[in-house]
Amino acid sequence: MIISLHESSLFLKIISASGDTAAVWSKAKTKQKHLIVLLPNLSIRFIYNTESNNQSGGLKLLLLGLTEDPELQPFIFSLFLIMYLVTVLGNLFIVLAVSSDSKLHTPMYFFLCNLSFTDMCLSTTTIPKMLVNIQIHNQSITYTGCLHQIFFVLVFSVFENFLLVAMAYDRYVAICHPLRYTVIMNPCFCGLLLLFSFCISVMPALLHSLMVLRLSFCTELKIPQFFCELPQVLRVACSSAHINNILIYFTNCTLGGVSFSGVIFSYTRIVSAVLRMPSSGGKYKAFSTCGSHLSVVSLFYGTGFGVYFSSALTLSPKKTALASVMYMVLPQMMNPFIYSLRNRDMKVSFRKLIGRIPSF
């Protein structure tokens, strides 16, 4: 015998062991009614399809964060507040310095300015919500807010990935084709490259967000992260997320493989061209122009691969959350230091920018 209940309208089918329908009862208008059938020689299976909780506006998820120890919460709040302020102010200085100095209106600094803006947006998507939750002692986030976090984290992460590829291509053209650099990297091409990268970033983010809408969620909605990370959200879903997981692997392999291959190709050609230079001074100058970008690429992909392997090898949610901090917070905070400490033009522009402030 099979008993099936469907959402708000109760629908029951009683089927014998041979599969023939013995009776059908429907149109019970309330969920408070119960039916108990005790019949020998019949197998009984109870199927209950609840309304997907994500359809109601009251669904909330709990972001457990890095630790649930109340004594460590003030330390974590102070630490992440400092990291967030350093990230925003450092990247904001880069945006203002590049925008205000006409000597930095080149393709390399155009992409650097957009990279800094993307870093600010990515950090703002996750960290402020975590700080607010710690401050008000409330770990919840609404279902809509969680979807927004998933979408914007994916958009800015993929966009930063393609910006690094565009910057690697820019260095490749500058070193391997210096005479044609201004012709190839013209403002129109740079703008189209930026627009194309952003559109490619929005597409998988929108697809993943829409795929989450098809899932149903039950009562245990605890996410062991400080933000709504897509794989962690899929784990708390009641319905099958097999298609979502396949889509994640496909997009990661496709977009990540293409972008990483582009960076490897660019730097392979750069190294090959630099090694053919006759003078050591020329080699040093060529490598120095790529040093900052190579450091940022190593930090971005190194922490990304570290998060992937740590989540695959460890079963501890806390270790996975700590690894995500290395990927979601550390690169965005370190990028301004890498470009300002290793770049003479940026240092000069910073001095000019600070000199314009009356208090300094």
UniProtKB/TrEMBL annotation:
The keyword Cell membrane applies. Pfam families: 7tm_4. PROSITE patterns: G_PROTEIN_RECEP_F1_1, G_PROTEIN_RECEP_F1_2. InterPro entries: GPCR_Rhodpsn, GPCR_Rhodpsn_7TM, Olfact_rcpt. The chain crosses the membrane at residues 75-97, 109-127, 147-169, 181-207, 246-265, 286-309, 321-341. Keywords: Cell membrane, G-protein coupled receptor, Membrane, Olfaction, Receptor, Sensory transduction, Transducer, Transmembrane, Transmembrane helix. Gene3D superfamilies: Rhodopsin 7-helix transmembrane proteins. Belongs to the G-protein coupled receptor 1 family. This is Olfactory receptor. It comes from Echinops telfairi (Lesser hedgehog tenrec). The lineage of its organism: Eukaryota, Metazoa, Chordata, Craniata, Vertebrata. The gene is LOC101657260.
